[in-house]
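fyi for ur records
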Amino acid sequence: MYYRLQMKLLKPNLIYNTFIVRQLSTQQSKVLLESNHNGISYLTLNNPSKRNALSLGVIEDLIKCIHSANDSRCLVIKSTGNVFSSGHDLKELHSSDANQQETIFRRVNDLMLV
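which gave:
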């Protein structure tokens, strides 16, 4: 599914620029958005009601998107809402068993090393 967004640019003579954003395959709806404009890839954390918490699904999608952004000149990770990210999804961690928690922390480590 694709969404059309408008982004305000910093240059005073260019007010708005429209580009297409692709919804990624996270378990939640529209939690991570990916877009590309003029060789710049944008990843947007889009779950402000949960303070853009990083669930395992979001972490997996971030890893995939970073790997697929090899053709980009630059990768920008941004978010919607008042908070960039609160960190781990603590509800997910609390409800997980030890093996699931180990998987989450291993994937976070992989994300940091990408």
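The beta strands are 2-8, 16-23, 32-37, 40-45, 74-79. thats all i got for now
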